Amino acid sequence: MKRVYLWVRELSLTQQLLSIAILAIAGFTFFLSVFLSPSIDAFTENEMFRIIHASQDTYLVYLEKIDDVSDISGEMVYHTLYDKHTDNFSGIGEMVPDTMVQEDIRRLLGTEEGILGDHVIETGKRLFASTAKILYSTTEYKPGTYLISYLPSDFENDFRASLVINVVNINVIIVAILFILLILWVVSLIRPLYQIRNYINKIKNDEPAVLNIRRRDEIGEVASALTDMQAELQRQQQSRQEMIQNISHDLKTPIATIKSYSESIRDGVYPYGTLNKSIDVIIEHADRLEKKVRSLITLNKMEYLLDELPEGDNLNMNRLIDKVLLSLSVIRPEINFHRELDDNICFHGDEEPWRIVIENLIDNALRYARTTIRIVLHEGELKVINDGRQIDEEHLASLFRPYEKGSDGKFGLGLSIVWKVATTYGYRVEAENLQDGVSFRIWREITKKEKKNKEREKKGSTRRQK
Prior knowledge:
Elements: H1 2-9, H2 13-65, E1 78-83, E2 88-91, H3 99-108, E3 117-127, E4 130-142, E5 145-151, H4 153-204, H5 218-266, H6 275-303, E6 315-316, H7 317-328, E7 336-341, E8 346-347, H8 351-368, E9 372-378, E10 381-386, H9 393-396, H10 414-424, E11 428-434, E12 437-443, H11 448-465
Parallel strand pairs: 7-9
Antiparallel strand pairs: 1-2, 1-5, 3-4, 4-5, 6-8, 9-10, 10-12, 11-12
């Protein structure tokens, strides 16, 4: 089965179409020989007996009115009178009674089955894979005298052959129509797929590419997704180029300042009045340079971050938040920090990436907060809320994308790192405007199994304390 699957997977759509056509023809032939042929046999037999019964009823009426049956001419159905007492068969009209019918009547005499009713005699000849036969029906005309009506095998075979040919022709026409529709359908699939392939090749070769596929099915959705992807790639490429220019400018400025101040000090000139103040300027710009370089290194490192930890929450977030606040709260002493932390909350992941996430979120909050920063920690959820100005709605959806320009026109790398770490460890991240500020939220859905395990752990801890 696996080999068949691999073989089919290597076929083109045209080859698959031909394979389907061949299988359909083979299946139709099998259906005709195994299922349809017996049904045609049964239908033919029932139809023959219907003709026999109709003709027999007509002849019974004639026999009541005419004494000399030799004057009645036969048509499709042949009739014979049989006298049981004399064991004599007499044909009606010029037709001589069929010898096989006579032998079968004599065989049935005295048997449980009896000679009355419908009977079938196999002749041994075959036509269209079906055994030819003689069908006859016997009814009592007078006591001891029976009317035997039968059809010869030639008529039945002709009728069956005609029926088979008609059925086959109808099925062939239906299969042909379906095959043509299938070809048109496959062509309608192949053409847009070729367009998509050419479109992708042009994008790969950095050539101008346009994709016009107006369909509402899955192919149309793929085409729409590709055009959206191309637009997004172009936007990211432009943002990346702008970011590189911005970073180059940010790096160039402190480097130029450090170089010029150092050369001035070497020549005995103090640009900022005194030696200490001039060196402080050099140190300030060196710190700026170091921070920018560290952000770039961190972003590049996070691109290769993988979740290689066992399942489960292993990192105590309460202690990690305390460590980060201890180092960052001194940046703006006038800001009030409000903590709303549940006890012993653990997240999944390594300490260093999550420390960078919390540092970036709090550093971002410190940049915009007026008076207060709230840190909320619940099971599977972390929020950092500041009371600064709201974010433009157009930037909310794309705030965490790499190389995204902020509302102030600068490229912040911190939120890109936040998004990368959170999604790597199975969490989601979003920004939301509040009535009096902005909330950055990281969370994941807690499963029922995890809730039950947490409840068991709490109950067990309570019992141990008692």
